[in-house]
């Protein structure tokens, strides 16, 4: 069933100002439950803007967006925040972990933000996720004590802790060396396979994109390509 139904999305920055610019010119995209999609395109083609709109971090100028069947374009900020917390996980190029907190505290942070406290069941779930991303020995470590790849794995555990149906990742391996990139990518694929989470992953790495199930390419604010990726035996 459809998770995302985006129709005729247009986005204009600086509306009404001299710098006014339309950066997405009528983008339509459907994402079904369980898909693992690579989003590619040259720098400035609108990938981050599209991801931010899909992630309810930014509003569109016109068009319609249904998330799990619900039209979201007219919801107020409070409603959007609720949807964002429960339906979406985010992984960014830079991990955005809180430096003063341990890996485990960082992973439980979404519960704290949403409910104001963390109960035993939630704590157990966070531990289980850190274990699943291979960090059972590093739960008490602060981000600065972890390698870049390990920091990204903490960020992935945090993105998954509320069990969202969809995770949006903006160049999650963009800041990593090849070996750590591969590890992080394999981990995303494993979370997809084992937990049924859908992923939209922005990447500049065509080698990794070839290992996604579907490739969507933006050029100059339009979808220039949208095709199923041939199986690659990963
Ligand atoms: P990509 O992620 O593909 O590099 P972006 O979505 O970041 O593309 O940017 C698409 C275009 O929109 C670029 O021309 C960029 O300069 C512009 N842009 C992005 N964010 C803003 C903003 N907040 N204000 C004005 N222009 C923006
Ligand atoms: P990337 O190309 O890796 O997506 P950018 O360096 O283009 O990243 O953009 C980084 C951040 O700055 C993004 O949040 C984007 O929305 C914002 N941004 C990009 N271009 C502009 C712009 N012209 N004016 C204001 N903000 C911008």
From TrEMBL:
Top-level lineage group: Bacteria
Domain ABC transporter: from-to ranges: 4-234
Annotated EC: 3.6.3.-
Coiled coil: none
Keyword field contains Glycosyltransferase: no
Key words of the record: ATP-binding, Cell membrane, Hydrolase, Lipoprotein, Membrane, Nucleotide-binding, Transport
CDD domains: ABC_MJ0796_LolCDE_FtsE (cd03255)
The keyword Hydrolase is assigned to this record: yes
A Pfam family it matches: ABC_tran
GO molecular function, one term: ATP binding
Family: Belongs to the ABC transporter superfamily.
PANTHER family xref list: IMPORT ATP-BINDING PROTEIN, LIPOPROTEIN-RELEASING SYSTEM ATP-BINDING PROTEIN LOLD
Protein name: Lipoprotein-releasing system ATP-binding protein
Organism of this sequence: Hydrogenophaga palleronii
């Amino acid at each position: 069933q459809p998770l995302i139904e985006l129709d005729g999305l247009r986005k204009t920055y600086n509306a009404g100002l001299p710098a006014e610019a339309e950066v997405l010119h009528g983008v339509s995209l459907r994402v079904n439950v369980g898909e693992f999609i690579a989003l590619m395109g040259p720098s400035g083609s609108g990938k981050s803007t599209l991801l931010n709109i899909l992630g309810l971090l930014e509003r569109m100028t016109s068009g319609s967006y249904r998330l799990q069947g619900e039209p979201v374009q007219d919801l107020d900020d409070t409603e959007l925040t609720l949807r964002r917390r429960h339906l979406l996980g985010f992984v960014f190029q830079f991990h955005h972990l809180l430096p003063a907190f341990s890996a485990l505290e960082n992973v439980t942070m979404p519960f704290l933000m949403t409910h104001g406290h963390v109960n035993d069941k939630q704590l157990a779930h966070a531990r289980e996720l850190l274990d699943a991303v291979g960090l059972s020995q590093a739960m008490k470590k602060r981000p600065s004590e972890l390698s870049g790849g390990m920091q990204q794995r903490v960020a992935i555990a945090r993105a998954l802790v509320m069990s969202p149906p969809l995770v949006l990742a903006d160049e999650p391996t963009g800041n990593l060396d090849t070996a750590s990139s591969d590890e992080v990518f394999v981990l995303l694929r494993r979370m997809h396979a084992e937990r049924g989470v859908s992923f939209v992953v922005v990447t500049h790495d065509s080698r990794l994109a070839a290992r996604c199930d579907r490739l969507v390419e933006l050029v100059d604010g339009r979808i220039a390509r949208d095709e199923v990726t041939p199986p690659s035996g990963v």
